[in-house]
Amino acid sequence: MIEYIFVFLFGLVVGSFLNVCIYRIPKGLSIVRPASLCPSCGKPVKLYDNIPVLGYIFLRGRCRSCNAGISARYPLVELLNAILYVVVLQRFGFESVSVLMVFCIFISALIVITFIDIDYQIIPDRISIPGIPLGLLFGSTLLPDPFLRSELLGFKASFIGFLCGGLGFYLIAVLGKLVFRKDAMGGGDIKLMGMIGGFLGWKGVIFTTFLGSLFGSVIGIALIAWKGRKWGAQIPFGPYLALGAVASLFWGQEILSWYLG
Ligand SMILES: [Zn+2]
Question: How many Å lie between the centroid of ligand 1 and the Cα of residue 231?
């Protein structure tokens, strides 16, 4: 029990840092300096107001200096990161601390990519490009195969995953451009899938693509029906791919054995 509480609290603290990354990376700002500022008045956020989730509750969602509203997304990103860390611990973490750490870094990178893609329709190279060698390095050496939990993924599966993800999505992008005469797939999605392939292997790429398209269609249709979004409106694909990758990581083995009967 104590492990879960510790990992949850650690996830909240990292989540708070992810908010800084989501806000600053697309603006090309440093993620280290300065300390957190209010986006409205530019005053530094006091240390005790910066406590994940609780700071937001104490302040009732308003800046202490200028009273401007603070987006509820800040505590939600912190909670999301913390909850996913707890699931990583439950699914993988008791075997090895390094596996726990690597998957937590992977999950946090996907969270940052998701929210930046929602805000700006871009996937930041500052995350996906370093993610590719890291995925290959850890995938080849220490990560378990998410579809065969008891075995290591290994270099071959990780490298083929990187090729399938990167090259596969590059081909989809080229074909999409020929057929639809517009960019169906951004360069960011290609690099993101290369990174996911390194971490999850080629089966992970297939599952992520399948689940991502499924989530994308269901949520896309819901948005059209519910919010009156237009067909063919630019909807970023990155968040669905990230969701597909997380689902493959956590439940790939169960989905695969269910599918194979
Ligand atoms: Zn303020």
Answer: 38
The two structure tokens encoding residue 110: 């996907």
Q: Which residues, 6+ apart, have CB-to-CB distance to 45 below 8 Å?
A: 35, 36, 37, 38, 55
Q: In 153-185, which positions are buried (b, 16+ CB within 10 angstroms) versus exposed (e)?
A: beeebbbebbebbbebbbebbeeeeeeeeeebb
Rounded CA-CA distance 8/14 in Å is: 10
> Using CA atoms, how far apart are residues 39 and 71, in angstroms rounded to an integer?
11
Angle, vertex CA 81, rays to CA 80 and CA 84, nearest 5: 85
Mean pLDDT, each 10-residue run in order, the chain (261 residues): 94 96 93 87 88 91 91 95 97 86 97 95 93 96 91 94 93 84 79 96 95 90 78 76 96 89 81
Whether residue 110 contacts residue 245, with contact meaning beta carbons closer than 8 Å, is answered with: yes
121 Cα–ligand 1 center, Å: 27
CA of 67 to the centre of ligand 1 (A): 6
Side-chain half-sphere exposure of 204, counting CA atoms within 13 A? 38
Q: What is the reported pTM? A: 0.92
CA pair distance 244, 208, nearest whole angstrom:
4
